[in-house]
UniProtKB/TrEMBL annotation, chains A, B:
The chain holds residues 64 to 167 of 171 of the full protein. Keywords: Redox-active center. The keyword Glycoprotein does not apply. The keyword Endoplasmic reticulum does not apply. Belongs to the glutaredoxin family. CPYC subfamily. This is Glutaredoxin domain-containing protein. It comes from the Eukaryota. Residues 16-79 form the Glutaredoxin domain.
Length: 104, 104
């Protein structure tokens, strides 16, 4: 579908992409983590995109199997949600992924 | 107002009250914590109460100064949100508050 192609292009063209909601603390935690790591993700606030928000969330679920926010991609790869991202960070695996994605 | 009186009565009549949203992970964390502590809170899922949900959230803000969920009361006292509750738990202050409220 066209929306699916848009998402695939977005995540391959941008090193870090976060699908988020402005009111959601888990989404805020992920955005703060990237800010702390001095990474500037491309963020889509699904609650501020009118009817396109829920549509994107549906298509993301189709592509990634994940229906929730935040939904995080690094280097075109689906990372997961807030807990997944924090886990990688605590294991020291996040920063290597980020450097790899940024130098592409 | 009538809604304000309802809330005040609810939190004084019930040892633990949580105003929550079903889709919210911070709300889930607070509910899980109480479950782990074998406490059975009275939970209001503001997203499942039709137009009353947003109204309750507004009145809670007027009463407590807190506009967000989860909104937690123990022994009739306003505790705060997820971070506040977790902080009290980690400081060992939550369980005394809970015992005190449950034996009223
Ligand atoms: N374990 C997941 C939890 C994700 C989750 O439950 N997200 C909630 C918001 S905190 C959600 O997307 N709820 C449904 C919605 O907002 O559409 C994570 O760490 O990201
Ligand atoms: N630090 C607060 C954060 C509370 C917060 O930002 N809650 C969000 C949901 S996670 C909220 O209520 N957003 C507005 C809304 O859902 O109406 C806590 O620990 O509870
Ligand atoms: S909506 Fe509360 S943590 Fe996501």
């Amino acid at each position: 579908s066209r929306l699916e192609d848009t998402i695939k292009k977005t995540v391959s063209d941008n090193p870090v992409v976060v699908y988020s909601k402005t009111w959601c603390s888990y989404s805020s935690e992920v955005k703060s983590l990237f800010k702390k790591l001095r990474v500037d993700p491309l963020v889509f606030e699904l609650d501020e995109m009118g009817p396109q928000g829920p549509q994107l969330q549906k298509v993301l679920e189709r592509i990634t199997g994940q229906s929730t926010v935040p939904n995080v991609f690094i280097g075109g790869k689906h990372i997961g949600g807030c807990s997944d991202t924090l886990k990688l960070y605590r294991n020291g695996e996040l920063e290597p992924l980020l450097s790899e994605a940024n130098t592409k």
